[in-house]
Design brief:
Elements (H helix, E strand, L loop, with lengths): L4 E5 L13 H15 L3 E5 L7 H15 L6 E4 L2 H9 L5 E3 L11 H16 L2 E4 L2 H7 L5 E3 L18 E5 L8 H8 L6 E5 L5 H10 L4 E4 L3 H10 L2 E4 L8 H8 L4 E4 L11 E4 L5 H17 L1 H18 L2 H15 L1
Parallel strand pairs: 1-2, 1-3, 3-4, 4-5, 5-6, 7-8, 7-10, 8-9, 10-11, 11-12
Length: 336
């Protein structure tokens, strides 16, 4: 067997493995373990020094000095700043795009982010797209492979205990459209609403609390606590209309949760896994859709159980890290 030495570069923003929030960092950690289990050698460069996007670029530049000290066969990058810096310096690398910008650029910052992603895939040796839809938007490159995010199915699993809880997960910022979900849930009685994730916008947090004063915002929490909340809840809401392939949805599905989300997460979520709304609908229509589907799941136990079983089976078959690592290994062999 060809033994490959793989070097991963983090973001410089969150630890690897992350203490709580950090979807890309979690991806790198789990993928590296999967690749190591296949008999390959793994190195990771990451130093938590960045507080914002500019800090990520500085970390990326710093990391090149460390990369020169390592004898690797494959360099695998996962963030826009690292891809941009390493491409400018002439490195050959595999690039996985986790960016939400492929599903739509709605601001100057989004347009810039998308332009960097396009630059990175142009200069990458091989590219990993998380979905077929994103691959189409990337262009006609033959070097693009579709390999989704994965999840540790051994720890993200359903619980026999269920609380009447509706959970959302991700950063608390306007782009996640949490306010739309809150407006839908206002008229539903006797449910708990929990939002897991770091607060990125305090003004938005205040706005959300005005809509739903009893909602619980956990902030960044440890992974085990996060799994406990997911596995014992009844519905997972993900109203964001700007996403890549959502790790939050994959983790929720692995825990057996029925999902209600926008169509940017199709085909991860389809009729067998929950309910999907058209992201082009207006806010009133989306609110009505979410309220109707939440009540349906809460009141129909057979429907809820059926969706839960479907979700767990789908994740075990297509999104376990064992399956993902074998697909990524094929890309590495092509490069090495």
């Amino acid at each position: 067997m060809l033994k490959i030495k793989v070097l991963y570069i983090g973001s410089g923003r969150y630890a690897i493995p992350p203490n709580g929030y950090g979807a890309v960092e979690k991806h790198i950690w789990n993928l590296s373990n999967g690749i190591r289990s296949l008999g390959h050698e793994v190195y990771i460069i990451n130093n938590v020094v960045a507080k914002n996007s500019l800090g990520e670029y500085k970390f990326a530049l710093f990391s090149t000095r460390e990369a020169k000290k390592i004898d690797y066969d494959v360099l695998h990058l996962h963030t826009a700043p690292t891809g941009f810096v390493y491409s400018l310096l002439g490195y050959k690398f595999v690039y996985t795009s986790h960016s939400r910008h492929w599903s739509g650029a709605y601001s100057i910052r989004d347009v810039y982010g998308l332009s960097v992603e396009k630059h990175n895939i142009k200069y990458a040796k091989e590219v990993i797209s998380l979905t077929e839809e994103i691959k189409k938007k990337m262009g006609g490159y033959e070097k693009i492979h579709v390999i989704p995010n994965g999840v540790d199915v051994h720890i993200y699993k359903p619980s026999s205990t269920k609380n009447k809880t509706i959970v959302l997960m991700g950063e608390v910022s306007p782009r996640k459209d949490i306010h739309i979900a809150f407006k839908a849930l206002k008229g539903i009685n006797n449910v708990n609403v929990i939002v897991i994730g770091p607060v990125k916008d305090k003004e938005y947090l205040s706005y959300l609390k005005n809509i739903m004063p009893n909602a619980i915002f956990t902030g960044e929490i440890g992974e085990l606590k996060m799994i406990e909340i997911l596995s014992t809840s009844m519905v997972f809401l993900h109203p964001s209309r700007s996403e890549g392939l959502s790790m939050a949805i994959i983790e929720a599905m692995s825990c057996g949760l029925p999902v209600i989300c926008s169509d940017v997460s199709y085909p991860l979520v389809s009729q067998e896994n929950g309910f999907v709304f058209d992201s082009k609908l207006d806010e009133r229509q989306i609110t009505s859709f979410i309220k109707e589907k939440v009540e349906l799941i809460l009141n129909d136990e057979n429907l809820s159980k059926g969706i839960s079983i479907n979700n767990r089976k789908k994740i075990e078959k297509f999104y376990s890290w064992e399956a993902i690592a074998k697909e990524v290994e094929k890309v590495y062999k092509a490069v090495a």
